[in-house]
Amino acid sequence: xxxxxxxxxxxxxxxxxxxxxxxxxxxxxxxxxxxxxxxxxxxxxxxxxxxxxxxxxxxxxxxxxxxxxxxxxxxxxxxxxxxxxxxxxx
Length: 90
What we know:
Layout: H1 2-26, E1 35-39, E2 69-73
Antiparallel strand pairs: 1-2
Protein backbone atom coordinates (compact mmCIF):
# COMPACT_ATOMS: atom_id res chain seq x y z
CA UNK A 1 0.00 0.00 0.00
CA UNK A 2 2.72 2.47 0.94
CA UNK A 3 4.57 1.86 -2.34
CA UNK A 4 1.49 2.96 -4.30
CA UNK A 5 1.19 6.17 -2.26
CA UNK A 6 4.88 6.95 -2.77
CA UNK A 7 4.60 6.27 -6.50
CA UNK A 8 1.58 8.59 -6.77
CA UNK A 9 3.40 11.35 -4.89
CA UNK A 10 6.48 10.98 -7.10
CA UNK A 11 4.29 11.01 -10.21
CA UNK A 12 2.49 14.14 -9.02
CA UNK A 13 5.83 15.75 -8.16
CA UNK A 14 7.12 15.07 -11.67
CA UNK A 15 3.98 16.57 -13.22
CA UNK A 16 4.31 19.71 -11.11
CA UNK A 17 8.05 20.01 -11.85
CA UNK A 18 7.38 19.65 -15.58
CA UNK A 19 4.69 22.34 -15.47
CA UNK A 20 6.95 24.74 -13.57
CA UNK A 21 9.84 24.13 -15.98
CA UNK A 22 7.56 24.74 -18.96
CA UNK A 23 6.24 27.98 -17.47
CA UNK A 24 9.79 29.14 -16.74
CA UNK A 25 10.90 28.51 -20.32
CA UNK A 26 7.83 30.30 -21.68
CA UNK A 27 8.67 33.35 -19.56
CA UNK A 28 12.34 33.42 -20.66
CA UNK A 29 13.60 36.88 -21.58
CA UNK A 30 13.49 37.97 -25.20
CA UNK A 31 16.64 37.85 -27.31
CA UNK A 32 18.74 41.00 -27.40
CA UNK A 33 17.70 41.54 -31.02
CA UNK A 34 14.06 41.74 -29.88
CA UNK A 35 14.85 44.46 -27.32
CA UNK A 36 15.18 48.24 -27.56
CA UNK A 37 16.59 50.92 -25.28
CA UNK A 38 13.88 53.04 -23.65
CA UNK A 39 15.12 56.36 -22.26
CA UNK A 40 13.41 58.58 -19.72
CA UNK A 41 11.39 55.95 -17.87
CA UNK A 42 13.98 54.57 -15.45
CA UNK A 43 13.51 54.61 -11.68
CA UNK A 44 16.60 55.89 -9.83
CA UNK A 45 19.11 53.10 -9.38
CA UNK A 46 17.48 50.79 -11.94
CA UNK A 47 19.06 51.77 -15.26
CA UNK A 48 20.49 49.02 -17.46
CA UNK A 49 23.73 50.66 -18.52
CA UNK A 50 25.78 53.84 -18.35
CA UNK A 51 24.26 57.32 -18.53
CA UNK A 52 25.76 60.73 -19.22
CA UNK A 53 26.51 61.12 -15.50
CA UNK A 54 27.81 57.60 -14.65
CA UNK A 55 29.26 54.50 -16.25
CA UNK A 56 27.53 51.63 -14.46
CA UNK A 57 24.17 49.90 -14.54
CA UNK A 58 22.02 50.68 -11.52
CA UNK A 59 23.59 54.07 -10.83
CA UNK A 60 20.99 56.49 -12.22
CA UNK A 61 20.58 59.17 -9.56
CA UNK A 62 17.05 60.36 -10.37
CA UNK A 63 13.77 58.95 -11.58
CA UNK A 64 12.94 59.41 -15.28
CA UNK A 65 16.46 60.57 -16.17
CA UNK A 66 16.25 61.37 -19.91
CA UNK A 67 19.78 60.01 -20.43
CA UNK A 68 19.25 56.67 -18.66
CA UNK A 69 17.59 53.67 -20.25
CA UNK A 70 16.22 50.20 -19.63
CA UNK A 71 15.92 47.47 -22.24
CA UNK A 72 12.31 46.64 -23.10
CA UNK A 73 10.75 44.40 -25.75
CA UNK A 74 10.81 46.09 -29.17
CA UNK A 75 7.78 48.34 -29.70
CA UNK A 76 7.07 48.76 -25.98
CA UNK A 77 8.86 52.06 -25.38
CA UNK A 78 6.43 54.01 -27.57
CA UNK A 79 3.60 52.82 -25.30
CA UNK A 80 5.22 54.16 -22.11
CA UNK A 81 4.48 57.75 -21.13
CA UNK A 82 7.69 59.76 -21.42
CA UNK A 83 9.58 56.92 -23.09
CA UNK A 84 11.91 57.58 -26.01
CA UNK A 85 14.15 55.30 -28.05
CA UNK A 86 16.71 58.14 -28.25
CA UNK A 87 18.50 59.85 -25.33
CA UNK A 88 17.67 63.50 -24.66
CA UNK A 89 19.74 65.98 -26.63
CA UNK A 90 22.04 68.27 -24.64
